Amino acid sequence: MSLRIPYDTIKETVKKAFLNVGLSEEQAEVCATIHTQSSADGVESHGLNRIPRFVEYVQKGWINLEGKPELAGARGAVENYDGHLGIGITNALFCADRAMELAKEHGIGCVTLKNTTHWMRGGTYAWRMAEAGFMGISWINTESCMPLWGSDEPGVGNNPFCIAIPREDGPIVLDMAMSQYAYGKLGVYRLAGKELPFPGGFDKDGNLTSDPGAIEESKRILPTGYWKGSGMAIALDLAAALLANGNCGTDMDEANQGSCTGCCQVFIAFDPYLFGSKDEIQSMLNRRVAAADASHPEREGSHVTCPGERTVSTRARSMAEGVNVDELVWEQVQAIAAGNLETKDIASK
């Protein structure tokens, strides 16, 4: 069952939960804001739903609350940092902001990060760059959680990739895993008792299915575009590890410390007006988006949108009517805020 809870109520409850885990006042404020914003934007899988797992990882020592990005190397517009297994959100925010600072100076800025932890909603950092006026590209590598095409066991991460276009009339932001559905989204549908809109993986008998629970059990999520998503996933893994001089997916598999512990991330910011005026660039963006949105819909009464456009309307509804949350997840977050740190993570299997 889902509920609508006021944004401020959620944020303050989440902040209390994080303070109970041991985060500082500043860390708790920043992380509570990002988690609540993610749920308000309709990405509850990496908003409230991830909080119990974050608490578990802190308790296990897989997240170092004292860890902060440390410069490991620099050359021109490119910098490399060691995240020291710090909080994924605060590490990633630092690197996204640093990439933009470099882009102001050089036109483009690239910051790579190794030895960090889960950044939660990847789109957070792409949105941040676009809303600041930069084109942004970011991605992460993960432990193996998806079969390579032709395999029946996890052999590569689903390695989320984001790209954001700084359109003044509304950023266009693509935030996607290399699997048809991320595991977090499977959990959202399972908790809601719903089937996936399209097949998202295979059951333990090798049958293509829309049953989220069966896919979680088999660990055979479907690569986006079949072999193409599989190939893109391994390329993103290698590229992130190469650029950051850090762990690849195999290294994380061997460490076996949960989702994304010790991963690499890449943040690239680009000045969109290096080779064209603001007026002509924005005019082109608006012209292209308008043409895409005007595409004839396959079903009467529906309409086509570009990535990120529905996020804006979801966010507006959340602020007006309350953020949509799963009742059981909300109870878990409230329990942590009340001091019960033994709450089980029901959003994942």
TrEMBL record:
Its EC number is 1.1.1.130. GO terms for molecular function: 3-dehydro-L-gulonate 2-dehydrogenase activity. Pfam families: Ldh_2 (PF02615). It is an enzyme of class 1 (oxidoreductase). InterPro entries: Mal/L-sulf/L-lact_DH-like_ah, Mal/L-sulf/L-lact_DH-like_NADP, Mal/L-sulfo/L-lacto_DH-like_sf, Malate/L-lactate_DH-like. Keywords: Oxidoreductase. NCBIfam families: PRK13260.1. This is 3-dehydro-L-gulonate 2-dehydrogenase.
